Amino acid sequence: MTVRLPRRAARVAVLDPAGAVLLLRYDNPEVGVHWAMPGGGLEPGETPRAGALREVREETGWSDIEPGPLLCTWEHDFTRGTVPVRQREHIYVAHAPRRPLAGDLSAAHAGDGILSARWWTPPELAAADEAMWPPSLAALLADLRAHGPRDPAPDLGYVPHHR
């Protein structure tokens, strides 16, 4: 059995006015290629909201994104560098205009295994056959559109990845 270090992280579901979400395409040696929202590990003493804000700036180049309500929390396993981790993520919602990433992000993206970025419309996300983190992202965003933020936000618990 693999021993996994606990890791705390935060992400932001950046939604455009039509409900499309910005996703980054990551490549990870353990779980493979997948799509996820901008985000990553928290620094020591950092709150999830502060980490989400920092991470979205680092990975998009946008300095005007403010994390709003919590969409969900969840846990999953992957390898960070050479270290197996079990990551607990807080995923926040933010609204912004649809636009390209800003600035030269090549070094930051290379370090995090980010291959590309794209906006996914709700129908595209619902029909996607590519791996998404969390796997229930399309349903979570559909519920958000239909009912608004949940209080408390859903805790998806531990979700295994299927390669």
UniProtKB/TrEMBL annotation:
Q: InterPro entries in the record, alphabetically?
A: Nudix_hydrolase, NUDIX_hydrolase-like_dom_sf, NUDIX_hydrolase_CS, NUDIX_hydrolase_dom
Cross-referenced Gene3D superfamilies: Nucleoside Triphosphate Pyrophosphohydrolase (3.90.79.10)
Instruction: Report the cofactors.
Output: Mg(2+)
Entry-linked Pfam families = NUDIX (PF00293)
Instruction: Output the CDD domains linked to this UniProt entry.
Output: NUDIX_Hydrolase
PROSITE patterns documented for this protein? NUDIX (PS51462), NUDIX_BOX (PS00893)
**SUPFAM superfamilies per the UniProt record, alphabetical:** Nudix
Query: In this protein, which residues make up the domain named Nudix hydrolase?
Result: 5-143
Keywords in alphabetical order, please.
Hydrolase, Magnesium
Q: Which family does it belong to?
A: Belongs to the Nudix hydrolase family.
From the Swiss-Prot or TrEMBL record, give the protein name. Answer: NUDIX domain-containing protein
